[in-house]
Each structure stands twice: as C-alpha cells, then as structure tokens.
Specification:
This is Multidrug ABC transporter ATP-binding protein. It holds the Pfam family ABC_tran. InterPro entries: AAA+_ATPase, ABC_transporter-like_ATP-bd, ABC_transporter-like_CS, ABC_transporter_ATP-binding, P-loop_NTPase. Keywords: ATP-binding, Nucleotide-binding, Transport. The chain contains ten helices and 14 strands. With about 300 residues, it is an alpha/beta fold. The protein folds into two domains: about 220 residues, Rossmann fold; about 70 residues, Alpha-Beta Plaits (2-Layer Sandwich). The strands form three sheets. A six-stranded mixed beta sheet has the order 6-7-8-3-9-10, sandwiched between helices. Strands 2-1-4-5 form a four-stranded antiparallel beta sheet. A four-stranded antiparallel beta sheet has the order 12-13-11-14. Strand 4 and strand 5 form a beta hairpin. The longest helix is centred in the middle third of the chain and has 16 residues. It is elongated. The two termini are about 30 Å apart.
C-alpha cells in the first residue's frame, strides 16, 4: 500500500538556531490512526504545521497523495483538515455559517446536506443557529472538528483534540474519530493523554527533542517494550525480602503484604516457576496472585528517558 503522507529527512531550524525537527522520516497510510506522543516542546505541533504548509521546512520533503506539498500546495492542502490546539472561531457567527464558509474557502460547492451531516456528527445540530460565543468550550472544540471536515478532507490532523475537554466529551470525540476512520479518513493526532493514544491509535509515534524516537504498531510496542508483573498477596507480611529472593527482580510492597515480580514478556523464560519454587523453599505462602501488563504510559516514560 502506498502511503498517503510521506516525510523524508525533514528538518526544521528556526532563525534563532533552535532545531525543532531533526531528520524526521515517517510514512502514514490511508485509513489509519496514528498518535504522536511527546512532552511539551518535543516538536509535535511543528511537525503538523510543516505537513500542513503553515511552517516551512529547513530541508527534506513531504508528499501528500504522491504530490509535493511545496510544488502542489493547493492540491495537497485541499486533502487535509486541521484541528488546531487553540479555540480560534468567530464569536459572533453561528456553527452553520462557520462550517459553510469554511467549505467555500476550499472552493467546494454549497452542500447544505453535507453541512447538516457534519454538524450532526459532532453533536452540534441543535446549536447550529446559536452564536459561537454562547457555546461551551467542549462545543467549540467540536466545532473546530466540523470546520476541519467542511471540505471533505481525506486526512485529518488533530492537535491535542482533548485539551480542556471533560472525560465524557473526550470519549464522545474518540467515538467520532473512530467513525471518521471507518469512513476512510486518515487521522493523525497529537496528545498528552496516554489513554487517548492507547484507546484510538493503530500506531504510536514517540517524539522527544525534535526526534522521532520510534513509530510502532501499538500492539507490537506493548509486546516489545511492555513488561508484566506477577503480584502475590502474602498470607503473612514480611519484614524484609529473604536473601534467597534478592537475586530476582522482586519488590516488597504494601508494608510487606505484597511481593511484585517483574518479568520480560519476550524472554525465552519468564522465571515464574523458579520464583514460585524459591517462595516455597523459603516457606512463604500467598493467598492470591495476579498479573498486570505495563501500560503505554510506562513504556512512553521509559522511551523518553532513553532518548
């Protein structure tokens, strides 16, 4: 499958000498959701701005649907919808006028039925004739998505789409994003919410200090870098870890009531049997055991620390 967005050797250095992007290479494929994770100042917004033609790259190439964004800016930009972080809307217009006007800016013919569909998709149909200044922050965020969809783009960029949005509305937005992907829209989002990436993305990209540390299928990333923990609830608390258990990666927690053994899911041997044998030999009894998987947040923190 040919990528719908292809980024090759992309660099961005500002006039003051700050290098915001360092040799970024990334292919994005039709119909996927890719999440870009990274701390503040990592380069996420700069990367999106560069792909959308808002910022000019220092070097490198970007193609959208096989066309160079610099040489065919009008054609490539018409394929892209962008939802920025900032709530930039005309306070004295209405959602209906705003979405209709945005559609016209891209040279699209008037289509009231499509505008109605978009406003219904983002749950703003009932507010279509209200002044935007009267809408809540969450509604304004959804209106930005409607504006970005006004010209029927094939690619949608969401820059921190859940910033300032409550949990319930965030989940509604996740459902909308999945619905858009199911209709064939390719979605690239930046987020600070680890659970957002874990919930929605097909692939995860991690950016730190302007470098794309990795891009990996979410499930593969969890398998490769995720660790599992065997949690044992003891019948009797331990004052300290016996010497025979100190050779294992075991922690004593909860005032001696819990033992936690961490093991690599990709290792040829997990060592669980050996640990359980050592516990038996040490006459340590437990009432319950369970396993937990490292979260994407744990993996992200480790990757950034390595970077």
């Amino acid at each position: 499958m040919e990528p719908i967005v292809s980024i090759k050797n992309l660099n961005k250095t500002y006039k003051g000498g700050f290098q915001a992007l360092k040799n970024i290479n990334l292919d994005i494929y039709p119909g996927e959701i890719i999440a870009l994770l990274g701390p503040n100042g990592a380069g996420k917004t700069t990367l999106i701005s560069t792909i959308c033609g808002i910022a000019q790259p220092t070097s490198g190439t970007i193609t959208v649907d096989g066309k160079d964004i610099a040489k065919d800016f009008r054609d490539t930009r018409s394929l892209i919808g962008l939802v920025p972080q900032e709530l930039t809307t005309d306070a004295f217009e209405t959602p209906w006028v705003t979405v209709s006007f945005s559609r016209g800016l891209f040279g699209k013919a008037k289509d009231p039925a499509y505008v109605e569909k978009v406003l219904k998709d983002v749950s703003l149909w009932e507010k279509r004739d209200n002044m935007i200044r009267t809408l809540s922050g969450g509604m304004k965020r959804r209106l930005l998505i409607a504006k970005a969809l006004s010209h029927e783009p094939r690619i949608l960029f969401l820059d921190e789409p859940s910033a300032g949005v409550d949990v319930e509305l965030r989940r509604e937005m996740w459902q909308l994003v999945h619905k858009l992907r199911d209709s064939g829209v390719t979605i690239i989002l930046t987020t600070h919410y680890i659970e957002e990436a874990e919930e929605m993305a097909d692939r995860i990209g991690v950016i730190a200090d302007g470098e794309l540390i990795l891009v990996e299928d979410k499930k593969s990333l969890m398998q490769k870098l995720g660790k599992k923990q065997l949690v044992l609830e003891l019948k009797q608390p331990l004052a300290e870890l016996p010497a025979s258990l100190k050779t294992f990666e075991i922690e004593l927690k909860d005032d001696g009531h819990t033992l936690v053994y961490t093991f690599d899911t990709q290792a040829e041997r997990t060592g669980i049997t050996t640990v359980l044998d050592a516990l038996r030999d040490a006459q340590i009894n437990f009432r319950d055991l369970s396993t937990t998987q490292s979260s994407l947040e744990d993996i992200f923190v480790r990757l950034v620390e390595k970077g």
